[in-house]
Design a protein that fits this description.
mainly alpha, 2 helices
């Protein structure tokens, strides 16, 4: 008889663990999703701040370039030389802005793709937990139906 009571205690413990894991699965998935969302939001905010800083730096660079153009107009001899420099710098700034914008778009796309993968993984894990729980319940029911061994 102590063997039968031990089996009952193990089945009750297994059932309790299964029920607790089922009850905590959805809140845990929600928490993980929320934490991931907060992390992504902070990354996007940091990226936005960098873009604003780059825009400000670009505006400052444009102001400097404009000041140099005005100086070049006053001096006829150096105007041709400085105009070439300014044009090259302006193209460099525009190229850099374009590259940074493209890099930001790629980062956002890659991040969203990763988030989709994480969400798919969470759904898969949830399904696996549900299948495991169902299997454990089926095993428990089968043990309850079969006559005890003597």
């Amino acid at each position: 008889m102590p063997n039968a009571s031990q089996k009952i205690a193990e089945n009750v413990l297994l059932l309790a663990v299964a029920r607790i894991s089922m009850a905590l699965a959805l809140p845990m998935i929600g928490f993980i999703t929320w934490v991931t969302g907060q992390w992504l939001e902070s990354k996007f905010d940091a990226q936005d701040q960098r873009i604003v800083a780059q825009s400000t730096a670009s505006e400052n660079q444009s102001r400097i370039t404009t000041a140099r153009v005005e100086t070049a107009e006053k001096t006829a001899q150096s105007a041709i030389t400085q105009a070439g420099e300014i044009n090259g710098r302006l193209i460099s700034v525009e190229t850099k802005q374009t590259q940074e914008s493209a890099a930001a778009d790629r980062f956002q796309s890659a991040t969203l793709t990763r988030l989709d993968r994480v969400q798919d993984s969470i759904v898969g894990l949830s399904n696996a937990v549900a299948a495991l729980t169902a299997t454990l319940q089926a095993v428990a029911e089968e043990r309850n139906r079969s006559p005890p061994e003597r």
